[in-house]
Specification:
This protein is of the alpha+beta class. The chain has a domain of 150 residues: Up-down Bundle (Butyryl-CoA Dehydrogenase, subunit A, domain 3). The protein contains eleven helices and ten strands. The chain has a four-stranded mixed beta sheet with strand order 1-4-5-8, with helices on one face. Strands 2-3-7-6 form a four-stranded antiparallel beta sheet, with no helix packed on it. It is an enzyme of class 1 (oxidoreductase). Keywords: FAD, Flavoprotein, Oxidoreductase. This is Acyl-CoA dehydrogenase family protein.
Length: 372
């Protein structure tokens, strides 16, 4: 097999229009000042902004038209995620899109009502972890009375979600129990502090909770695999946008800050890393749009898996490097909370751990790309 593999890339007119509008909307509603306004608030976004996203149909991206979606396919979410990242907007949109994909691919007919609710604007999330370790064994279960028991940690956007898709063990196999967050107790959701204050997560306890839907069977394992790969792709897209914003902030500083009577941007030691950020970012953009060109509503095949893993490895490494250089270039000020470079290096540390870091994906890429 060639290491190059599938290199197809298509950017159709609908994606182009969506990217242009998403960039404009996110730049107008988001940005560094807007992000800082919500750093210490219970929610990391304005409810009005969420309502506008719903009105534009963004929660229905990737869902079929018969249940209220746009029918564009989940690949169309890549330009939106990139725009969210560039504006550092931490809305529950990505969690909602991924939850919809998990349920759609596990059992679209059984989950039709929940999916219709998501398309209409209900935020949603997936509760996966029982421990701090990614993808550990599930301890949540449905008891003999049909009630959900257990606890999940670090559930992204749990504070905003109407629907929570809980990964459980059912009849010795993976299953999904969907819970209406309104049925949870008053103290069921315990907010957690993330290194990236532009996002929110919480621990969620489930005690005698009646699921609105239980999905089991062979389709769940395939859906979970797709969910994790698509999650890696959308986080990669978000990270690519954040890298672009980080580069803008860094270059602007290099063009205005003087030392020894010279602009610091004139020094080769700062020029070269800035160019490296640009090339890493451009590579990441190629990877995410290559992956979006391949993604369909069908179960992801080998080429799609390779594309998603490549995108995640490249994009989060680019953001990590950009955030680190931004802090260093700002000198002592870069280590303070008031410096915007802090927002990017913190976003980079968070993004690295979502759906596997670069090393995780490269280990799996080796087996996919190298001939036996």
């Amino acid at each position: 097999m060639s290491v190059i593999g599938n290199t197809a890339m298509r950017f159709d007119e609908e994606q182009s229009m969506l990217l242009d509008y998403a960039r404009s909307f996110c730049a107008d509603r988001g940005g560094l000042n807007a992000a800082r306004e919500h750093l210490e608030s219970p929610l990391e976004y304005s409810p009005q902004v969420w309502e506008e996203m719903v009105a534009m149909g963004w929660t229905g991206i990737g869902l079929p038209e018969e249940i209220g979606g746009s029918g564009l396919g989940i690949g169309a979410a890549v330009p939106v995620a990139e725009s969210l990242g560039k504006a550092l907007m931490g809305t529950p949109l990505i969690s909602t899109l991924l939850t919809a994909q998990l349920l759609l691919r596990a059992d679209a007919s059984a989950a039709a009502d929940v999916l219709a609710g998501i398309a209409a604007g209900d935020a949603a999330c997936v509760a996966e972890l029982e421990s701090e370790d990614w993808n550990g064994p599930s301890g949540c279960f449905v008891d003999d009375a049909g009630l959900l028991q257990g606890r999940k940690q670090m559930v992204m956007d749990a504070q905003s979600a109407r629907w929570i898709a809980v990964l459980i063990t059912f009849e010795d196999a993976s299953a999904i129990a969907v819970v209406d967050a309104r049925d949870l107790g008053a103290q069921a959701i315990s907010p957690r502090v993330l290194i990236d204050n532009t996002h929110r997560a919480a621990d969620v306890g489930f005690v005698n909770v009646q699921p609105v839907l239980l999905v089991s069977g062979e389709s769940v394992s395939s859906a979970l695999r797709d969910y994790r790969l698509l999650g890696a792709l959308l986080v990669a897209a978000e990270s690519t946008g954040a890298t672009a914003a980080c580069l803008d902030v860094t270059v602007e500083y290099l063009k205005t800050r003087k030392q020894f009577g010279k602009l610091i941007g004139s020094y080769q030691a700062l020029k070269h890393p800035s160019v490296e950020i640009l090339t890493m970012m451009d590579s990441a953009r190629s990877f995410i749009y290559h992956a979006s060109s391949l993604i369909t509503d069908e179960a992801l095949a080998k080429d799609q898996e390779i594309a998603c893993r490549m995108a995640k490895a490249q994009a989060t490494e680019a953001l990590k490097f950009a955030g680190d250089r931004a802090v260093q270039f700002h000198g002592g000020m870069g280590f303070t909370w008031d410096c915007d470079a802090q927002l990017f290096i913190r976003r980079a540390q968070w993004a690295q751990q979502q759906f596997g870091d670069a090393q995780h994906h490269r280990q799996r890429l080796a087996a996919l790309l190298i001939d036996d």
